[in-house]
């Protein structure tokens, strides 16, 4: 692996960024910090949800909006909140959580701080699936299903191309980059060849948007993302063992290649479901794991939950900014996340490329 990867996640047989053993005090302090951050994230998420349900051209007081969510209060408020605002807000929460957890799984499994669904082709496959549905003239309700199928197809393509010659971290990343770029080229070809009336819809989907989501899509996506997060928590022990390196993982009874592929498949499922709800929203999967790592310290099962909450907060806040803060109406939420994420990506790359004592001594 390159210095960029080694500097961030390590490749040796020792744990990466684990709390040092000073009794149980360091671990206890970290658990308290994660618990406090998680509680703050839940509170912030509740505030954002209340704002999302109440704000708009027809303003509903936050308390009335929360009551309307459960069918209590004025019938017009109930219809407005339940049928129009709530599905969009919940879709942002679900997709943000799924993308963030998918990103942290990929970064830890691939031991690369720049790994994300954008890198290994999942979002490119989701875009291709959605655009292909639009190109055939199929009902718009099938677009999320096409995105989900496209993401899984990209994962299958990645697995087939990576398996030949042995599954290695470097190979998966390089093959993923090639798959992503190839799929993006096909999507651009579709859009160029589209009739003018379909090109705008396709372009909006490939940027990422939660506009027009329904309870059917949101409920299905929410159930799948919740199941995926629970599976990620259940597999956290294997993830922690993989952090020790392949040799140590094998000595502890974990087959590294099989465990890596299983966890990557789970990350792909989460990212594909999220993309099926919102399209390929960029930078959530890349940035949130690093933000959580900076605030909460080394990765633990608790920080995985915090990562899901952080992704939900970021995507919902970005969607609210699109709706109520930006002067240009109708912008996809992916524009906001990309605007926030691009400087973060630059800072991250500069930090990782900065020479360290270990690299200069080589």
Structure description:
The chain is an all-alpha fold. The chain is built from 16 helices and no strands. It has helices at 3-9, 25-54, 62-69, 75-110, 122-135, 143-163, 169-193, 196-207, 215-234, 236-242, 246-251, 256-278, 284-296, 301-324, 333-353, 357-360. α2 (25-54) packs across α3. The radius of gyration is 21 Å and the shape is globular. 46% of the residues are buried. Mean pLDDT is 80; it is low at 1-8, 10-21 and 356-362.
List keywords for this structure.
globular; disordered N terminus; mainly alpha; 0% strand; 362 residues
Number of strands: 0
Q: From the helix content, strand content and strand pairing, which structural class follows?
A: mainly alpha
Helix proportion: over 70%
Average pLDDT works out at 80
Give the termini distance in whole angstroms.
Answer: 15 Å
Oligomer: single chain
Taking the sheet with the most strands, its summary is: none
Beta-strand percent range: under 5%
Counting DSSP H or I runs of 4 or more residues, the number of helices is: 16
Catalogue the unreliable spans: 1-8, 10-21, 356-362
* Cα radius of gyration in angstroms: 21 Å
Give the overall shape: globular
Write a brief structural summary:
By secondary structure, the chain is mainly α.
List the helices and strands and how they pair.
Layout: H1 3-9, H2 25-54, H3 62-69, H4 75-110, H5 122-135, H6 143-163, H7 169-193, H8 196-207, H9 215-234, H10 236-242, H11 246-251, H12 256-278, H13 284-296, H14 301-324, H15 333-353, H16 357-360
Helix pairs in contact: 2-3, 2-4, 2-14, 3-4, 4-9, 4-12, 4-13, 4-14, 5-6, 5-7, 5-8, 5-12, 6-7, 6-12, 7-8, 9-12, 13-14, 14-15
